[in-house]
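Team,

Forwarding the record for the chain on the shared tracking sheet. I've put the sequence and predicted structure together so nobody has to dig through attachments.
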Amino acid sequence: MPISRMTDAADGNSELGTTAIPVDRTRFDDRWNRVRRAPPKRLMQSELEKAHVGDGLVETETLDRINLWVNHRLTYKTDARNYGQDDVWATAAETLARGSGDCEDFAILKMQLLRAAGIGGDRVKLVLLRDLALNADHALLLVRSGAGWVALDNMTDRIYDGGRANAVRPIMSFSGERRWVHGYLDTQPVQPIAAIPAATKAPTATTADNVAYPVRQSYKSSIRGREPNDVRAASVAIARHAIARYRWLLGGEIRPAT
């Protein structure tokens, strides 16, 4: 497909320092469609009650309580240990039944609890990414709040700014019927998550993150020498880089979002 059609559809708001580029299919669509279905309402309401989430809370407090509850409710366990195979996307009900999961299971449960608490599904995104500091794959939940994008991450109890670049590189994200690949320009120094400021208007009850993540140099894309003010050129470069790097994740042919 022409690059221009991809960049015309690119989202304008930065997500973890990247541009989200809509596509119409990925290799993970079957898994996503399975885990995004609403869990039993009674199960979600029971968990919300345990997390002390109810009517009358401001949204930032709802985000904070759900993030804390899930992070402490679940034990981290790899898919290989939990299910005997790699890369299993568990539903919220399956994760609660086991009381454990890996990073995307934490994020999926948070997503479903937020939806049950009244936050629209179009405001939450499951993000698959690469943690450059830990040299490992990771996943987290982005939520579009009144303060912009904020990140709910099982690596920390602290809700942090989800718009700023840090030591992770988003690869792909999912929300409702939509999915995106992510492109970026290496124009900012990489920051560990612990160095990213807390989200604006975050509740004071949020626990501070005292973990010191090692900082590693960002790997560089082939995009260099672009004029920062040349938005069109930068968008084309971002799209080309994302398409070239992640074509295999999209099941082969790149298709524009419809």
